[in-house]
Write a structure and sequence with these properties.
By secondary structure, this protein is mainly alpha-helical. It is built from 18 helices and no strands. Keywords: Cell membrane, Membrane, Transmembrane, Transmembrane helix, Transport. It is found in: Cell membrane.
C-alpha cells in the first residue's frame, strides 16, 4: 500500500489530537507504579488505592456518553479547550490532595477533562479526513495515546524516586494549558447544526447503571462492602441497563440508538472490547504492584521493566494493517485474544529469581500482542458505521473502553482480596500467590472472550488481489486507539 501523505493543516490537527490522547492515556496508568508511595504518604494500604484509579476511569466512562452531543452542540474547539483546562486543574488538585478521599475527588475532576479529550479529538479526525486517509490518520494519533498508557508506569516510578509522587500530576498542568491554547488556534470548530436535545433520562439511567456496577466490583476489593451490598449494587446496575434499553427503543433521539447494534461488526466489537479489555486494563495496575509488594523492586525498577511493553507496542503497530489485509478481522482477533489471555496467565509464573532477559521478553511479548489487540478490535467496531452513526458509535466505544479499564482494575483488586482471604494471607508482602491467582482468572476471562470475536463475519478471502481484499477488510470509517 502507498504511504498516505497529509497536508500541513491535517498534520497539525493530528499532532494536536495526539497530544490530547497522550495526556489522557498517560494519566490513566502513571498512578499505578506510584500507588505504594502515595499510600505511604496518605497512611493507606497500597491494596486500597485502586479506588483512585477506578474513580478516574469511571468518571470518564460516565462523561463520555455526553461528549458527542457536547461537541455537536458547542463545537469541537470549545469542548477540547475546556477539556484541557479541566484536566490541568484536576491534575493540580491531585498533587495537593492531603487524603485518599480528596485524591479520589480530584481524580474525578481530572477525569471530567480526560473524558472529553479522547472522543472529541477522535471525532474531529473522523470529520476532517476522507475515508481513504482515515486508517493512517487514526494510526498516527493512536501511537502517542498507546505510548502514554504504556510508559505511564515507567515515568511514574522514576518521578516517585527522583522527586516525589506529586510530580506525576504536576507535569500535566503546563501540558494541559498549552494544549488549551493550541486548541484555540488550531482545532477546527466542527459542529452539527441539526443536533437535538440531550437524552437526559437515558443518560441518567446509563450513569446509574455504570456507577452501580463499578461500585459493586470495587466493593469486593478495597471498599470492603458486605456481600449483600455488592449484590444490591449489581442488581441496580443491571436494572439501570434494562431500563435504558427499553427507554432507547421508544424515544426518537436516544443517547445511543439500539439501531447501532444492527451493524454486526459494531455489535461484536463493542462486546469484545468490554470483555477483552478487562485483562488489558488490569495489567498496568497489577504488574507494578506485584513487583514492588512481593518481588522487592523499587518504583523506578518496576517502571523501567514496563518499557519493553511500550517499545514492542510501537514496533508491532505497522503489522496490524497488513495482518488484517491478509487474514481478516475474524481470524486475527480470535487468535490474538487467545494469545493475549495466555500471556496474562503467564505473569502468574513471575518470581524474583528469574533472569532479567526473561522478564524483558515477557513484557515485550505482552506489549506487542496487546497493541495488536487494541488496533484490531477498535477498528472493527467502527469501520462499518454510516456517517450519521459515527458520533454516537464513537462515544459508545470510548465509554466501553474506559468502563472496561475501570472494571479491570476493580476485578483485579477484588480477586486479590478474595485470594488473600482464601489463602489466609494478611501481610501485603506475602500476597504473591494472591496475585498469581488473579492473573490466572483474568487470563481465562480474556481467552473466553475470543468467542465473541469469532462471531464476526469471515472477511478472509484467500487468493484475492491485495487491493480488493484490503477494501473488504478495512472498509469505510476506519478507527484506531
Amino acid at each position: 500500500m502507498a504511504k498516505t501523505h497529509f497536508t500541513a493543516p491535517e498534520r497539525t490537527l493530528l499532532w494536536l489530537v495526539a497530544i490530547g490522547f497522550f495526556m489522557q492515556s498517560l494519566d490513566g496508568t502513571i498512578v499505578n507504579t506510584a500507588l505504594p508511595a502515595i499510600a505511604h504518604s496518605l497512611n493507606e494500604s497500597p491494596l486500597r488505592m485502586q479506588t483512585a484509579v477506578v474513580a478516574y476511569a469511571l468518571t470518564m466512562a460516565v462523561v463520555i456518553p455526553a461528549s458527542g452531543w457536547l461537541a455537536d452542540r458547542f463545537g469541537t474547539r470549545r469542548i477540547f479547550m475546556t477539556a484541557a483546562v479541566l484536566f490541568a486543574l484536576g491534575s493540580l488538585a491531585c498533587a495537593l490532595a492531603p487524603t485518599l478521599n480528596m485524591l479520589i475527588a480530584a481524580r474525578v475532576l481530572q477525569g471530567l477533562g480526560g473524558a472529553l479529550l479522547l472522543p472529541v479529538g477522535r471525532l474531529a479526525v473522523l470529520r476532517s479526513f476522507p475515508k481513504d486517509k482515515f486508517l493512517e490518520a487514526m494510526s498516527f494519533v493512536a501511537v502517542p495515546g498507546l505510548m502514554g498508557q504504556l510508559i505511564g508506569p515507567t515515568l511514574g516510578g522514576i518521578l516517585v524516586e527522583a522527586v516525589s509522587w506529586h510530580w506525576i500530576f504536576l507535569i500535566n498542568v503546563p501540558i494541559g494549558l498549552v494544549g488549551a491554547f493550541a486548541a484555540k488556534r488550531l482545532m477546527p470548530d466542527l459542529r452539527d447544526a441539526k443536533v437535538g436535545p440531550l437524552d437526559g433520562s437515558g443518560y441518567l439511567m446509563l450513569t446509574v447503571a455504570m456507577v452501580c456496577m463499578s461500585l459493586s466490583l470495587d466493593g469486593l476489593g478495597g471498599l470492603g462492602f458486605q456481600h449483600v451490598t455488592v449484590l444490591v449494587l449489581l442488581l441496580a446496575g443491571l436494572a439501570g441497563l434494562t431500563a435504558y434499553w427499553l427507554h432507547a427503543n421508544k424515544v426518537s433521539q436516544p443517547l445511543f440508538s439500539p439501531h447501532l447494534f444492527s451493524v454486526p461488526s459494531f455489535r461484536v466489537g463493542i462486546l469484545g472490547n468490554l470483555f477483552a479489555r478487562i485483562g488489558s486494563g488490569a495489567m498496568p495496575y497489577m504488574i507494578p504492584l506485584l513487583m514492588q509488594l512481593s518481588m522487592g523492586y523499587s518504583p523506578a525498577q518496576a517502571g523501567m521493566l514496563m518499557l519493553p511493553m511500550a517499545l514492542a507496542s510501537i514496533t508491532i503497530k505497522p503489522l496490524a494493517t497488513r495482518l488484517i489485509h491478509r487474514y481478516g478481522y475474524r481470524y486475527v482477533l480470535s487468535v490474538n485474544t487467545v494469545v493475549l489471555g495466555m500471556l496474562i496467565m503467564g505473569f502468574a509464573l513471575m518470581t524474583p529469581e528469574q533472569p532479567l532477559w526473561l522478564r524483558i521478553v515477557q513484557m515485550a511479548l505482552f506489549g506487542a500482542v496487546n497493541s495488536l489487540q487494541f488496533t484490531c478490535m477498535n477498528t472493527v467496531t467502527l469501520k462499518d458505521l454510516e456517517s450519521h452513526q459515527a458520533s454516537s458509535g464513537n462515544s459508545m466505544l470510548s465509554m466501553v473502553q474506559m468502563l472496561s479499564m475501570g472494571m479491570g482494575v476493580a476485578v483485579a483488586a477484588a480477586l486479590i482480596a478474595s485470594f488473600q482471604q482464601w489463602l489466609g494471607v494478611t501481610e501485603i508482602t506475602g500476597s504473591a500467590n494472591a496475585f498469581r491467582g488473579a492473573f490466572v482468572c483474568i487470563g481465562i476471562v480474556t481467552v473466553l472472550s475470543a468467542w465473541v470475536f469469532w462471531q464476526l463475519e469471515d472477511d478472509h478471502a484467500p487468493g484475492e488481489p491485495g487491493d480488493a481484499l484490503a477494501k473488504k477488510a478495512i472498509g469505510p470509517g476506519e478507527h484506531d486507539h
